Amino acid sequence: MAKAVTAANSAALRRPAQAGREFSAPAAKIAVLPPAERISLRAPETSVAALSKALGLKLPRAPKTSASAKGRTALWLGPDEWLVIDEAGGDPLADAGMVKDLHSAVGISHRNVAIAVTGQGAEATLNAGCPQDLSLAVFPVGACSRTVLGKIEIVLLRTAADAFRVECWRSFSDYAFTFLAEAARDAAA
Fold it and tell me: What is the C-alpha to C-alpha distance for residues 75 and 133, in angstroms, rounded to an integer?
């Protein structure tokens, strides 16, 4: 017998991709992070100050840099492009929408999945598929870049000396997680 649809249960509940998935190896741990609010932000130099004020953090202006405040992080991806991630329950899209200066802010929370790579073997794990020099001297805490992991594009953020955040598209999240888990296993060998 089919269950009647009521207003209370008519909204589809979407389970986040890879929710709760973890893998541990002696040298590194891979874990899917909880959902977060994200926007892809594009703006000319003349709008950066107003957007920084509205978002509650100073948008970084130098390559490979990020800025964080109150659970929100902005990653520099290009001269006029940032990825803004809010893990504190805020709404960066609404905040950016309050700014009248020229800009484009697009909600991409549904598109991305974040994976944490932590431990003494985090660099080696990522370097199994990422050609960038991820040594602490070249890619310090707070450094970020759009790069590749195996066959997919990712955005990479170093969150601590032995920790990284990998942002990838939802449709590639299984590939990214599996790749990183295999690499972590190999890093331990």
Answer: 18
